[in-house]
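Example (one chain per record):
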Amino acid sequence: MYQTVGLNEFRNAFEGHERTNFSYEGLEVLFNYIEENYGDSVELDVIALCCEYCEMTYVEVFNTYDDITDEDLTDFEEDELLDMATEYLDNHTIICGVTNQGSIVFAQF
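Predicted structure:
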């Protein structure tokens, strides 16, 4: 049996799960990415999605992937750092999108 799930039901499905590492807006980015790329025939498996995708700020990306740059990060503006983190991720994985707060939703690698 299949059930069509909208954004609110999608967000609600993540409530109460320990491994949910997505913001409210991050879940919208992930929902839109899945809907645009996979259509309506996707099984909603919250645990699998939490294992496959994540949301990080550019600071967390720099802390997690230390091979992004050897340059002194204090020389860059925030938007430049976000661009650097996004470019790095784009070269290594799939980016689902960026939230208005500047966090990046992407496929983990």
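Caption: The radius of gyration is 15 Å.
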